[in-house]
# Entry
Amino acid sequence: MYPCGRVDRWFGLLLVALGAYLPWIRSHPTVDTALLMYPAGLGSGLEIWGSITLALSVIAAVGIVTGIGGVDTSLFRALVGATAVVLGGHVLVHSPGVTGPFVAGTGAILTVLGGLVLLVSERKPLGELPSWLSSESGDRSVR
# Structure
């Protein structure tokens, strides 16, 4: 085992942090227009939601290394992953989307991928699910 946790957790946190630095919005490659405006996120994801995802990923990484209670939990890392998926997904789907003069950039894509890796790495094994979800919990037929 690795001294500071599993590699998939670190990989997800790294993707979320890297996605925060990269542009979340870029100009559409097929639209030839002069940039008369500069939307937030065109330079770096830190201009928009990337600052939140970066802070959460750093807090989660510090929690893994130091073992701080409340921060070094699967629930906190799953919340970091869910936040990254929601914020990055919002940029992918709603804000610039995939049409128009601006489209979603690589930062938003990496943030969503990192969030998904965190969510998958923090899932509970089937043996640890609540008893009402397991098939051995008795008869659930309606009478």
